[in-house]
Design brief:
The complex is a heterodimer. Chain A is mostly helical. Chain A contains 31 helices and two strands. Helices cover about 70% and strands about 0% of the residues of chain A. In chain A, strands 1-2 form a two-stranded antiparallel ribbon. In chain A, β1 and β2 form a beta hairpin. In chain A, α15 crosses α20. The chains are: A mainly alpha, B mainly alpha. Chains A and B meet through α24, α25, α26, α27 and α28 of A and α1, α2 and α3 of B.
Amino acid sequence: MLLVTGLALSFLYPLFLAVWPGWVRGRRAYWTAAVPALLFLGCLQAWEQVMQGGMVILDLPWAPSLGVSLTFTLDGLSFLFSLLITGIGTLIFLYASAYMKGYADSARLFGWLGIFMGSMLGLVWSDNVITLFIFWELTSISSFFLIGYYQEDQASRQSARTALAVTGLGGLALLAAGLLIGQETGGYGLAGLQDLQGLLTASPLYPLIAVLVMLAAFTKSAQFPFHFWLPGAMKAPTPVSAYLHSATMVKAGVYLLLRFSPSLGGTEWWTWGLTAAGGITMVYAAWQTLFRTDLKALLAYSTVSALGIMVFMTGWGTEAAIKAAVGFVLVHALYKAPLFLVAGILDKVTGTREVTQLAGWGRALPFTAAAGLLAALSNAGLPPFLGFVGKDLVYEALLAQGNSVALWGMALAFVTNVLLLWAGLQAGLRPFAGKPAPGSGRPLSPGAWLWGPPLLLALLGLVAGCWPSWPGNWLVTPALRVTGFPGREAALALWHGYGPVLALSAATLLSGALLAVFIQPSATRSQRWMRWERIAPEAVVHAGYRVFSTAATRITRLLQNGYLRHYVFAVTLFLLVVTAIQLVPLLADGQLPYRIAAVTVYEVMILVMMAASIGFTVFTRSRLVAVASLGVTGYAICLLFVFYSAPDLAMTQFTIDTLTVILFVLVVFRLPRYLTFSTPAIRWRDGIQALAFGAVIFLLILAVLAEPVTREVGDYYARNAYLLAKGKNVVNVILVDFRGLDTLVEISVLAVAAIGVFGLLKLRLKPTEWPEK
Amino acid sequence: MEVLLALMTGLLYAAGLYLMLRRSMVKLIIGLVLLGNGANLLIFLLGRIVKGAPPIIRADANVLTGLYADPVPQALILTAIVISFGLQSFAIILFKRAYKVLDTDDLDQMRDTDDL
């Protein structure tokens, strides 16, 4: 119940902020952290039930006919993520309260952070593919608004759009995958899905489902070639980068893969897909860090690389590998978030994030430096930090595979770890070491609210590393159970004994340290590298986007060019082609009734008169003749109505036709002759199109006349006109009685037209309103 | 006879469309009127035509019997005639005003207000 309240709170809190944005300004701002803190305590309190195998938080039928229910459960895997979301969330909220001080609309940031937190919790608690999808999209949307928080900055808006486009694409893939799974298994529930693993993997749709799930996970977790939105997302305020784009949201993809691993995993598709994407991503992104000098860009690429490691390990699917992936989720959150927060402090205090310009700040910012150092050492995998444990898990799992593919994977992981170690040292150590640059005076102290959260997180990484059995037993083992493994006790350990794993760890440390000594971040190197960016996935996507938008502009110019006659031409041409495709085969069949039977002389005379007057209307060069022959056409139709049993129509047509002609004559009789505006070629083109359209209408009528007719409605009125409405003229009765309301509305239309006519006639323009001649 | 009437409807549509594709505003309005007439005739034909049997109940009867024209299309067309009159009269008066102010019948010169 506490959790439901908390979830509701995190969605209601933004509403509260919308009404009272002043709440997060000034000292009161620190209270915003109460929302995530409350949820954190709520999750902790559920610990006992989680250890016993999970608990149902809420179970509400939502759309029972579709098999969609609002079911939220908290099991081992979601417990780990919930603690990360709410725990790191609390610290981020505190940090952001200090970081955003002085921003007028910080309420907007906290509002979206609240929505994000609620959605992310909903995502990891969802026990239903459809609700999972909805919360998945909600995290994408809140991420969009947070990346674009600096609305006035065009680059921010651009990055936000790119991120939304990429993650939104993945969201659609997730929905498609969910629907296919529902079609195969007959339900959308996640619980018990692992029992259907055989059914799912044997299905002919399995490759499609697997690819769609992977697409969703890879876009969210920024895997190559979809990784480019994440470095772009660094346009967001730093608390957002640390929270969404490092610690929580980007891990939603990993969460999805872990969640589906027992039900979809264990196949060639799954193993190869995940290991290939993860392997490429981890090496590619780690390599990219060498060429970044912006602290946040450097950290973004190292985050992408770390996500690559998690996906890579999930792909192997063994107990040790999954344990490494789950462990790495925790390890990474504890060191990467502080590194981001430290970068934010440096940015705020020194005004730059260029790592080449930062040195010697350790003396001025001792606590920040401590946080950075601790996080960098955990990242480096130095014992007894938790990072050491995490790295060992990776090596151990790969070694246990014992085949040549895994050995290649091991080589990739080694290279990645060395490069990541280098990146961590640049971000956490380099800005504080060495001599301060000349001229950089003593900065303002950042304050405990800024350096406290990163220091606390980094210390947690140290403490958890010293006693790894605690996070192992309480967080990793329950999560492992969810993914289908028994999960032995003491899942994590600091000391694994002498062996190849220890040697690899030592080699990693040594190589990373040597790399840090010999290779410094350099602006020239990064600039030289930038020319390769032209063929990077991001550039390709943007080029495609430009082509798309240019094409769209051209098509719009072509079709929506503001000339009414072009619209009419395009619309009728389309109609012509579509109808002709249907009608021409009928013509060939000879099923249309061509017979001309029972024609009297006067009918033919009327038709001839009509055809002649139409011809005059079209071809005359005098407006008055055109209007007069228009009147003749109307009278001819009037006569047709008389012959064919429609006296009411005849009367109406006669009246209206007369009125129209009089009105027309009054207006046009003084105008000069027509001018010819168009060339003969255009007139021929229009003439052919018009005749073809008339021919299609002719064929359409014949085709309909060949079909039997139903007169149920007409017969109903004929039977009841007198009995129900006491009228003998059935047409009149329909208009004024059966469909009386329609007629009332019709009269209103006429009234509106009359008001318009009256207004136009009475309008007197002021001299200034006349256009210049 | 239906075939001839169908031909006439097609002719009305063709003439209406051709006039609507012209640049003159008067032709546009005339085209619209012709197209409207064509549409009315189309509905009339599709409801099937009957000679000499209007849908009016005889003075000594309570229901329509025997052969009679379908009253529903007739009611629809009656509505259409009246509505199109509203449209036409408004368009004609609008043209009158536009011509008075702009002194042109050319739709292309009426595309925007600033260039005149």
